Hints:
Organism: Myceligenerans xiligouense
Distance between the termini: 18 Å
Order of helices and strands: EEHHHHHHHHH
Number of strands: 2
Largest sheet: 2 strands, antiparallel
GO molecular function: endopeptidase activity
Shape: globular
Oligomer: single chain
Structural class: mainly alpha
GO biological process, one term: CAAX-box protein maturation
Low-confidence stretches: 8-13
Strand content: under 5%
Keywords: Membrane, Transmembrane, Transmembrane helix
Mean pLDDT: 91
Helix content: 55-70%
Radius of gyration: 18 Å
InterPro entries: Rce1/LyrA-like_dom
Amino acid sequence: MVFTAAMHTNSGTTTLRVRPRVWLGLVAFVAYLAVFYAIWIVNGIDYARVGESEDTLLRWYVAPLAGGLVVLLITISLFGWWRPALRETRRLPKSAAVVPAIMAAVAILNLVFGEFSRVTMTMWLFLVVGSVLVGFNEELAARGQLFVALRSRFGEVGVWFLSTALFSLLHLPNFFFGIGALAFLQVVIQFGLGSVYYLAFRSTGSLVPAMLLHGLWDFSTFSSSLPYAGLAAPFLGIAGFVVALVLVVKERRRSPAPRVS
Length: 261
């Protein structure tokens, strides 16, 4: 049975095919991860070696993301959540885009000063395709569609915290895929970077800038053998966390959360 729901925002009413519920967002999120990790397991992933060669990029970067893309296209289309998942009507101040802009600059500088002698033309192709997919997939799965689901029950502080926590936790299985205890540090850093992507989404009113930033960051870090961007990641994460927390708390005091009926 298909239900029709109306999401009320400050720009009008958006008709949805399926009424937003937290559990539906989690189903889409988990389904995406299940397919992604299943392909990793079948292909024998070693996370520390993803960017090593044409073969590793194809099997461990492009292939699982392509599989996950199919899941997202199906689930979000069935839900009818594309418009609210990709657009943000309740924007944060434009100043919130400063941290995402700095992150983009760091990624670009990493590309300018990085070391790419081992990267072949085919590897560049796989890096571009994989980075576009990772930006689109993870932002849609962990922010766009999750925002729609979480806002059916939580205020914006909860939406930011829960969506960002789930985004960071999706990196925890890397413990079993080649990096061991470093996965716990990665989870902490990714919570901060996820907050930066949150700021990119909510300050621009579109999920596309967050997708592009996410893809650019992964493209920069996977392609270069020098860890310039990686060294900056904790500082960017701290800045993203602090700015996001301050802004969402101020927003909660200033205006009520949107409602779904």
